[in-house]
Every structure is written in C-alpha cells, then in structure tokens.
Amino acid sequence: MARINLLPWRESLRAERKREFGVMLIGGVLIAGLLIGYWYWFNQGRIDFQNKRNNLLEQEIRAVDKKIKEIDKLAKTRKQLVGRMNVIQDLQASRPQVVHLFDELVATIPDGVFLTELTQSGNAITVAGRAQSNARVSAYMRNIEQSPWLGNPNLSIIESKDKAKAGGSQFTLSATQVAPKEDGKP
Length: 186
Fold this sequence. Notes:
Layout: H1 7-108, E1 113-121, E2 124-131, H2 134-146, E3 150-159, E4 169-177
Helix pairs in contact: 1-2
C-alpha cells in the first residue's frame, strides 16, 4: 500500500480556513463598522433635522408672541378708544338735554318766583331763589312735577328773612333731570 502523507494538505487547508476566517472576521467587522457608521450618520441626520425644525418652531413662536403682544396693545388701544367714543356719544346725547333743562326751567317758573342760583351735579339740580309767597313755591313744585324733563321736586329750605314779609320767602329745592319716554321707543 502506498503511503500518502495528508498532514501538509490538512495544514494547508487549515491555514486557508484560518485565512478565510480572518478575512470573514475582518469583513464582518468592516460591515458591522459600516452599519454602525451608517446608523450613527442616519440618526445624526435625523437629530440635525429635528433641531432645525425645533429652531424654526422657536422662531415662529417668538414671532407669534410678538404678534400677541401687538394684539394686546391694540386691544388696550381699542378699549380706550371705545371708552372715549362712549364718552363722546354720551356727551352728544346729553347736549340737547341742557337746552331742554333751561327751557323747562323757564317754562315751570310761575309769576312771583325768582331764581338766584342754579347748580347741577349729574342729573341732580339744586335751585335757590325768592318767591313772593309760599303758595308760589308750591306752584313751582307742581310745575316741576308735571314737567316731562324735570321731576321729583324736594323742598329743602323755605324761610322768610324779611320781618315785614314784603320781600317774600327764600327757598332751596332740588329736582332731577329726566328724559321723557317717547311713544313707540323703548
């Protein structure tokens, strides 16, 4: 029988397998490194993209905050302007009332009554004057009660300063200015 030595062939096969294993190991390490590198690069790209989106959102939030502040300022300005407009409208609406007040004061004064002082605070009117008699003051109060622009007469003081009663009485009374209700309007 012939003797064949298989040891060198086995050793060369073993050396080749070791070399293939080393190449595969290096290839696996390279592929794993590439995969880890790609994974890192991909996630870093996503993080950078999200950071850019966050920055954009922060810029938009700052812009919206500025707009909100401007809107708040405009709302305050609007509120002030509306308040001013209401005051002007109230003044415009009350402008004819002064004319009616003086017209009614003249229309309600009976003969023998003379006014010396007139003060107004809001709708409250205080009248001071002289009358020839207490009956004329009563007539004046009745006229105020019947007036569409005046109401609620209240006599505060009536006194006779003249001992001979030739000058009559001095009086002070208060009333309120009212606006008459027009028919057909609430």
